[in-house]
């Protein structure tokens, strides 16, 4: 996208959202080993499920897509190590579209509730 105008980048983000009406976010226990997502694993808590994001982003602005509302996952019933998150094109199954792992896993104990607050996720490249 180098050299693209903000208008073009905003339009590209809008096409992305339109192309994936079942966009969802999942929590990763293992990060991918490469950009294609190979090696990634989602957490294995019995209560866990991906959360839908189809209406959770603000309209694209300044070439970015920003989380507009809080995304709250179900209460965990077991202790989990969360290494990152990924965007998928479906709530169940589907394809990993994007992911984020910073190399520092966080431990969430049983009874805790992972969440992303409004503004926690800002995507700058389609």
Structure description:
The chain is mainly β and 126 residues long. It is built from one helix and nine strands, in the order αβββββββββ. It has one helix at 6-19, and strands at 24-30, 41-42, 51-52, 65-66, 71-72, 80-88, 96-108, 115-116, 122-123. Strands 1, 2, 3, 6 and 7 form a five-stranded antiparallel beta sheet that branches. A hairpin with a 7-residue loop joins strand 6 (80-88) and strand 7 (96-108). The longest helix is centred in the first third of the chain and has 14 residues, at 6-19. The radius of gyration is 15 Å and the shape is globular. The mean pLDDT is 90.
Brief summary of the model shown:
The protein has 126 residues and is mainly β. The chain has one helix spanning 6-19; strands at 24-30, 41-42, 51-52, 65-66, 71-72, 80-88, 96-108, 115-116, 122-123. The chain is built from 1 helix and 9 strands, in the order αβββββββββ.
